[in-house]
C-alpha cells in the first residue's frame, strides 16, 4: 500500500516517516493513532495523509510512502 503524505511547512523528517510506517504496520486503528501521534494532523482519507504546522499548503511537501 502506498499513501501520499502532504505536510505543510516542512518536509517529513526520518522520524516522522518511521512513526507513520509503524502506525500502519502495528495499529488496528491507524486514523486514531495518527491523530494521537501528530499534533499537526488534519485528515486522512485512506490514501492521503495531511499534516499541517499552521503555515498552510503554500509550503506543502507531498511525499509517497510505501507501507
Instruction: Provide the gyration radius in Å.
Output: 11 Å
Q: How would you sum up the global shape?
A: globular
| Average of the residue pLDDT scores | 89
Helix content: 25-40%
Strand content: 25-35%
Number of strands: 4
Ranges with pLDDT <50 over ≥5 residues?
none
Structural class: alpha+beta
Tell me about this structure.
The chain has a 4-stranded mixed sheet, covered by helices on one side. With 67 residues, the protein is an alpha+beta fold. Strand 2 and strand 3 (48-52) form a beta hairpin. Helix content is 31%, strand content 34%. The protein starts with a strand and ends with a strand. The chain has helices at residues 14-26, 30-37; strands spanning 2-8, 41-44, 48-52, 60-66. It contains 2 helices and 4 strands. Helix 1 runs antiparallel to helix 2. The radius of gyration is 11 Å and the shape is globular.
Amino acid at each position: 500500500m502506498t499513501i501520499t503524505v502532504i505536510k505543510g511547512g516542512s518536509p517529513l523528517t526520518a522520524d516522522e516517516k518511521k512513526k507513520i510506517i509503524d502506525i500502519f504496520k502495528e495499529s488496528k486503528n491507524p486514523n486514531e493513532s495518527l491523530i494521537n501521534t501528530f499534533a499537526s494532523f488534519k485528515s486522512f482519507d485512506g490514501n492521503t495523509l495531511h499534516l499541517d504546522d499552521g503555515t498552510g499548503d503554500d509550503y506543502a511537501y507531498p511525499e509517497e510512502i510505501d507501507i
